[in-house]
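Hi R.,

Here's the chain you asked about this morning:
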Amino acid sequence: MRWKSLTVLFVVLLTIAFGAAGCESLSPPSAATGAFPQVSGIFNQQNTGIWVTGEGKVSVVPDVAVLNLGVESQAESVAEAQGQAATAMTAVVEEFNRFGVAEKDIKTQYFSIAPVRRWSEKDGQEILLGYRVTNTVIAKIRKIEDTGAIIDAAARAGGDYVIINSISFTVDNPTAHYDGARVRAMADAAAKAKQLADLGNVKLGKPTYISESGASIPVVRDFYPEAAMPAAPSTPISPGETEIRLSVQVVYSIE
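And the predicted structure, written out as tokens:
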């Protein structure tokens, strides 16, 4: 009798132990339990209020011309080709100096010396024709009204070796125009938020979040063929207008 009682007691204790272990395995970990309110809070925060993006732009006249030009020569020897290119580039740079282009505004962009070969059907192999030297610079012209005259002078100085790659126009100090673009961007954001609030039949509150995106300055660009510019007539240059753009992201509360 005593043996049967001990057996029953053992079975009961064993059942209680397994039941406790099963309940513990079914309950989620404390870390996971705490994570759900945090995720929910972030989700609710990101979906509260009215989110809009405002864009502002101001039109400005470019005050800087960026001229990309170079010289290219080809001869039977490296020394001869390099000498021709050096002479032509020196003459071009002298014209820049004559027009008052500062040395810091003239930057070498590319320089190369490469062999020139041609496939010969007769010989069944490539034949060395000579060597080509290419030297290009980027010149920033701050007196934008001199741009056309500088192009003409550089073309005359470099002769048949000159290559005019491109010319572009930009604004030297764009930050001076950011204030106006910023005012228009915020006004655009407010107008969009007001319209959304009216359409949603809610009352628009104050901004709770404002973020400004980087301003962009489109560059007015013209391209010229890789050929020497004629000495006459003079080259007409018109910078036109460009726009400085700025955007803001604003979150408005709903009252």
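The CA atoms of residues 49 and 253 lie 4 Å apart.

Let me know if you need anything else.
M.
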